Amino acid sequence: MQTYPFDAATLPAGFFWVNEPKRYFFDQGLNLITAAKTDFWQGTHYGFRRDDGHCLLTAVTGDFALTTEVEFWPQSQYDQCGLMVRVDSQNWIKCSVEYETAVVSRLGSVVTNLGYSDWATQDISSGISAICYRLSRQGQDFLLEFALAEGQWQQMRITHLHAVGAELQIGIYACSPLGEDFHCRFRAIAIGENQWGHTV
C-alpha cells in the first residue's frame, strides 16, 4: 500500500491535473476550490456533455484498491468530490456525495461507458461532512464502497468498464455543476492491492 498524505507543499510525484482547479493549497491535506459550472457527465437523459471538472490523477496498471478520505463544505446544488477512475472523456467512473439541500444529499456514483453516463444514488444526510471511499479493480470490473467515520466499508455498487485497457488514470476529483468555489479537503490517497470483498 502506497499512501500519499498530502502533508508537503507540492503534489506527489507522478500525479497530474486534468482541468486544474481554480485554486488549491495544502493545509491538513490537499484543499481544492472549484471553478464555476464544472462537471463530468456524458449524454444520457440530460443531453449535455461535460468533461471540465477537476481531477488529480496518476497512471496505474493491473488490479488495485484506491482509497481516500475527504471533507467537504458544499454551497450549491450538485457540489461533489470523491474518487475518479478514467480511461478518457467517454469512459470513466466517479463516486461522491452530491449536495442537494440542507437536509438531504445523494451518495452515489456515475459510470460512463462508450460516451453515456448512468447515475446510481441513495439518500444521505447533508449533515455528513466527511466520508471515505474505496474503489477496487478486478480486470474490467469495479467495486465501489464507502465508510463513515470509524465505520465498516459498505458496498455502493459493482460495475464494469467496457473500453478499459491495461493502464488507467486514477485519483480524486471535485466539481460544482451549478455553482463555484466549492471547498473540499482530501486527507490522503492510498493505492494498494485489490481489496475486493474485504470489510476492514
What do you see in this structure?
By secondary structure, this protein is an all-beta fold. It has a single domain (16-189), classed as Jelly Rolls. Helices cover 0% and strands 58% of the residues. The chain has no helices and 18 strands. Strands 1, 3, 4, 8, 14, 15, 16 and 18 form an eight-stranded antiparallel beta sheet that branches. Strands 2, 7, 9, 10, 11, 12, 13 and 17 form an eight-stranded antiparallel beta sheet that branches. The chain is globular. It starts with a strand and ends in an 8-residue tail after the last strand. 38% of the residues are buried.
Class computed from helices, strands and strand pairing:
mainly beta
What is the name of the CATH class? Answer: Mainly Beta
Element-by-element helix/strand order? EEEEEEEEEEEEEEEEEE
* Helical residue percent band: under 10%
How would you state the average pLDDT, rounded? 95
Strand content: over 45%
Summarize the structure.
With 200 residues, the protein is mainly beta.
What characteristics describe this protein?
mainly beta; eight-stranded antiparallel sheet; 200 residues; Jelly Rolls; globular
Helix/strand layout:
Elements: E1 2-4, E2 16-18, E3 23-26, E4 30-33, E5 40-42, E6 49-51, E7 54-61, E8 64-73, E9 80-88, E10 91-99, E11 104-113, E12 116-117, E13 120-125, E14 130-138, E15 141-147, E16 154-160, E17 167-175, E18 183-192
Antiparallel strand pairs: 1-18, 2-7, 3-4, 4-18, 5-6, 7-17, 8-14, 8-18, 9-10, 9-17, 10-11, 11-12, 11-13, 14-15, 15-16
